[in-house]
Specification:
NADP binding (chains A, B), alpha/beta, 413 residues, amino-acid biosynthesis (chains A, B), EC 1.1.1.3 (chains A, B), twelve-stranded mixed β-sheet, 14 helices, NADP (chains A, B), homodimer, Alpha-Beta Plaits, Rossmann fold, Dihydrodipicolinate Reductase, domain 2
Chain lengths: 413, 413
């Protein structure tokens, strides 16, 4: 008999408990699969709908219980969950987790440990909430060589950008609303500065390319610097802003990976992925582009993904996660040498700054689509290398401190 | 040792052969899985890259070969494949097929037959080409109750509508181009009159609702009647035309299912799904909306889906297809009693017809957004029942024969 141990009873943990215990002849009731113990910080505190005898504050009550063959780790704490997951695997228990920090840092190690012990570790909920992207990648790489991953992978920042666009508000205003709604953390750094997204991109890219893609090799820029005037200028040029995670494998065995604000055409599918929705696109040499769209976070979506993994373990219909290889070695080439169109905004105080800006721009770039409004110069360039663009922005920053630029992605679905 | 028998060596069959025989240490080479025999109409005709000794024109050479444990049926012929698939299952061979006609008519029977014989039948490629939608549905219904399916499920008609919109061409012009490009059949009936889509909707809906949804219960209207003037009028009103497959379960155990031209808002994701791309969206009570987007047809996409199924059979990592139940009984309630906004175009010859049209419209509908151009009245209504709308169109057809209407879907992602 397979019993389940749950580490964590926060939002996702409660969601998992509810789905598993929702009666009406569901899979768990039919097969008599039950949650036997739940690890919480304070076992004396009552939890609505959950029997007190299930609760414990001692991880060993779960890890050392031979009847428990499956650990569901949804505490969201790196420090507590990482040792618990390792121990569980060593004790030959299967593991399902939603912890993207642990998976982005230790995927290979944990998969190896699982393999050694004849068990498995699944982590669908670590990226893209309810979107079944991990399994889709595992399936796709059996036949295809994937050379590109693109995605909107963070609900909080996508919500902020969508609301800025729709309601013509500035970044800080919307961030405050999102915080009041519980949509953004009090300390929003992980979301708005791209660390959360970059972890997810590490996981996706490593799986897609069969090579460990280090977090440090992902060029990451904050989304904080997008102003309402940028969004309106982009709109006039026919684009919308998105906070995009991207990685691409090139023919010379190098890769580029980035988490940056970008502009994409309004006639693309991706441009209309708004609010809390996430989208992940992969590019296979046979299948072409596949895109997956759904709620990227939230109690229900994440709990759904966790429980789907649990069912896979219990029915043994698990794809070969433990046989994944990360043997390929690719070098990061940054994103500086590849050509893109760029959007550029330069704030100017007076005619002198205006003249200097225009001078630098026209001396350096051939084809420019330029407009001026409210003390700001907005422009769209032709294709330039990232290297060229950052040199140009360096020069402009001697004229004024307020220079902002972003890549334009034209070939997106 | 598992050997594979291939029924059919047309476009998809050739694609399957190529993927399986593409060396460089792929899954098939590594595990020594091979295609042993290929059924073709004329075994004496040479085929580029395929050894002549593999070919046979006698199905029994494959079906009666005990070494062959898996049949891949990609002839695309109902008459030849249906008996071959049945016989294969009875002989305890697994089956992978892309034939949507067979699956839409006999899914339940064939799954039962597979179960009786301890084998399985997979059919991912029967809907949505390379999009892994069948497996995603099977996974989703383990946890969710799905109450809605929506999709653009036919590449040919989506290509036609996209091209009409982008290049301002009329339906017949684009159809001819599509035929010249080999994108549309010489007899395009199955595509443009909705029969192809309706079969796919039968398969998806039956899986989602656990009930056999009969093809006859799907209200199907041709896409032929959309004119360039309709597309331009829709654009002015803020919409685009799509040929949409939809089914929905209602609380009173009834369902509505349709394949019809519809108008959807330009700010939706679905409105930007163009050309040969397909999209399928499902709605689960826990997961919310999930959408899957990719190439809906073509050699590579379809062959990819077939081979993915083949790998699932060979690695026994098959989800429980043969345990699917179709025991629920829902009655079709048509699509007439539910409320929608509608788009309406009435062509008029003279002032008398104009006056009569306006009179009927304003007498019957309260809020109307109306425009007039080149002898045509275009309008968008408030929410009305389908029943009311068809009565109204009946009345208008006494004024002029050329009346066209389409539902507007507002709540689409």
């Amino acid at each position: 008999m397979s019993k389940i141990g749950l580490l964590g009873c926060g939002t996702v943990g409660t969601g998992v408990y509810e789905i598993i215990n929702e009666k009406k002849g569901n899979f768990f009731e039919e097969n008599n699969y039950k949650i036997k113990k739940i690890l919480v910080r304070d076992a004396s505190r009552k939890r609505e709908g959950i029997p007190g005898k299930l609760l414990t504050d001692n991880p060993d009550d779960i890890l050392n219980d031979d009847e428990i063959s499956l650990i569901v780790a949804v505490m969201g704490s790196y420090e507590q969950e990482y040792p618990a997951i390792k121990k569980a695997l060593q004790l030959k228990k299967n593991v399902v987790t939603a912890n993207k920090e642990i998976i982005s840092k230790h995927m290979e190690e944990l998969l190896d440990l699982a393999k050694e012990n004849g068990v498995t570790i699944l982590f669908e909920a670590s990226v893209g909430g309810g979107i079944p992207i991990i399994e889709s990648i595992i399936d796709t790489i059996k036949i295809n060589k994937i050379n590109k991953v693109q995605g909107i992978l963070n609900g909080t920042t996508n919500f902020i950008l969508s609301k800025m666009t729709k309601e013509e508000l500035d970044f800080d205003e919307v961030l405050k609303v999102a915080q009041d709604m519980g949509f953004a953390e009090a300390d929003p750094t992980a979301d708005v500065d791209g660390f959360d997204i970059s972890r997810k991109l590490t996981i996706l890219s490593s799986l897609c390319y069969g090579a460990y893609i280090d977090n440090d090799d992902i060029y990451t820029r904050t989304v904080r610097n997008i102003t309402l005037s940028d969004i309106q200028a982009a709109d006039d040029f026919g684009y919308v802003f998105k906070y995009m995670a991207e990685s691409e494998l090139y023919d010379d065995n190098t890769f580029g990976a980035s988490v940056t604000p970008v502009l994409i055409g309004k006639d693309s599918v991706t441009s209309n992925v708004n609010d809390e929705y996430n989208v992940v696109s992969i590019n296979g040499n046979i299948i072409g582009q596949l895109s997956f769209l759904g709620r990227g976070a939230g109690k229900e979506a994440t709990a759904n993904a966790v429980v789907a993994d649990v069912i896979k373990v219990l029915t043994k219909s698990v794809h070969d996660y433990t046989h994944l290889k990360f043997e390929n070695e690719y070098k990061s080439c940054g994103i500086e040498r590849y050509k893109n169109k760029f959007y550029l905004r330069v704030s100017i105080k007076d005619e002198v700054e205006f003249a200097k800006t225009i001078d630098i721009v026209y001396r350096n770039i051939e084809n420019v689509n330029l407009s001026y409004e409210d003390g700001k110069v907005f422009l769209i360039t032709d294709e330039l290398t990232g290297e060229f663009m950052s040199t140009l922005c360096d020069r402009l920053s001697h004229v004024t401190e307020d220079v902002f630029y972003a890549r334009i992605i034209d070939n997106i679905l």
